[in-house]
């Protein structure tokens, strides 16, 4: 019997791919919630003035917690498995995200059981607490639809932005690595992420809100800049993590196998 999981490169690809796809999929679904970064940190909103729009703060989609992880994983996978590895996982992620949205689309249209709206309430709680929960979610099925039923333009925008971001990340990563060789991991990993995230930040807003919600272009640009400021800071902060992951992978593979994978990855053509 062929021992697939016993082969280190295959096992590594499965682990990296699982982390990549899981983070991309979860980011799509938690992204419906907008949170205040300042209030979460216990500070007052910054009230920025950008392109004439006053009172802008770091009100971010919750998906920004995971998208930086996706782009870091893109660079790691690119390093060891090349363009083909990233392209395969990106296409697979897109298919699985579409599938997940399709299942959710069906799920929110199913007629709920009569007892279900009350099923989330712990009967062991005092009556007053049970009543308080009921008052906050008077229609549990409506709340379910509200959370999971993301707009079509938002879904399209996020998928297109993800795909464009991945293509740019791979292209820039390889261009920088050809220039620097094996040195300066931070430059090719962080640099490619910073540029791809810049485009990603505006693509999703342009499609979802300029086209889909009739926002002005200046408002899209202003909010896109706020989002990118956050992504820029996180990309810089994650640079040490990239080195740590490289160290762990190289230790797992061994120097000879690690170098072999990297060399094979670099020989792959960016565009077939």
Helix content: over 70%
Mean pLDDT level: 86
CATH class term: Mainly Alpha
In terms of DSSP E residues, the strand content is under 5%
Extended strand count? 4
Rg calc: 22 Å
Termini distance? 34 Å
Q: So, CATH architecture?
A: Orthogonal Bundle
- What string, H for helix and E for strand, traces the elements in order? HEHEEEHHHHHHHHH
Q: Count the domains.
A: 1
Which stretches are low in confidence, meaning pLDDT under 50 for 5 or more residues running? Answer: none
For the largest beta sheet, what order do the strands appear in spatially? 1-4
In DSSP terms (H or I, runs of 4 or more residues), the helix count works out at 11
Coarse shape: globular
Biggest sheet layout: 2 strands, antiparallel
Summing up helix and strand content along with how strands pair, one would put the structural category as mainly alpha
CATH topology: Arp2/3 complex 21 kDa subunit ARPC3
Descriptive notes:
- The longest helix has 41 residues.
- It is built from 11 helices and 4 strands.
- The radius of gyration is 22 Å and the shape is globular.
- It has one domain: Arp2/3 complex 21 kDa subunit ARPC3 (Orthogonal Bundle).
- α3 packs parallel to α8, α3 packs across α11 and α8 crosses α10.
- A hairpin with a 2-residue loop joins β2 and β3.
- The chain is 72% helix and 5% strand.
- It has 272 residues and is mainly alpha-helical.
- It has a two-stranded antiparallel sheet with strand order 1-4. Strands 2-3 form a two-stranded antiparallel sheet.
- The chain starts with 7 loop residues before the first helix and ends in a 5-residue tail after the last helix.
């Amino acid at each position: 019997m062929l021992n697939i999981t016993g082969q280190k490169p295959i096992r590594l690809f499965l682990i990296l791919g699982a982390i990549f796809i899981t983070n991309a999929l979860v980011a799509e679904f938690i992204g419906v919630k907008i949170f205040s970064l300042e209030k979460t940190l216990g500070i007052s909103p910054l009230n920025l003035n950008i392109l004439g729009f006053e009172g802008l703060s770091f009100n971010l989609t919750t998906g920004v917690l995971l998208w930086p992880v996706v782009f870091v994983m893109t660079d790691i996978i690119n390093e060891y498995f090349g363009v083909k590895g990233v392209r395969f996982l990106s296409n697979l992620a897109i298919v699985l995200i579409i599938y997940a949205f399709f299942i959710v689309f069906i799920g929110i249209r199913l007629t709920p059981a009569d007892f279900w709206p009350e099923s989330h309430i712990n009967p062991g709680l005092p009556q007053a607490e049970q009543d308080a929960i009921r008052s906050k979610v008077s229609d549990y099925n409506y709340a379910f639809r509200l959370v999971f039923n993301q707009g079509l333009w938002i879904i399209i925008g996020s998928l297109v932005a993800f795909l464009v971001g991945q293509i740019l990340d791979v292209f820039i990563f390889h261009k920088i690595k050809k220039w620097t060789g094996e040195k300066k991991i931070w430059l090719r990993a962080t640099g490619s992420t910073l540029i791809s995230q810049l485009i990603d930040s505006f693509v999703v807003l342009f499609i979802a809100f300029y086209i889909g919600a009739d926002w002005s272009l200046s408002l899209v640009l202003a909010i896109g800049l706020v989002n990118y400021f956050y992504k820029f800071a996180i990309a810089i902060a994650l640079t040490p993590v990239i080195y740590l992951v490289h160290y762990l992978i190289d230790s797992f593979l061994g120097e000879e196998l690690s170098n072999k994978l990297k060399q094979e990855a670099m020989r792959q053509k960016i565009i077939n």
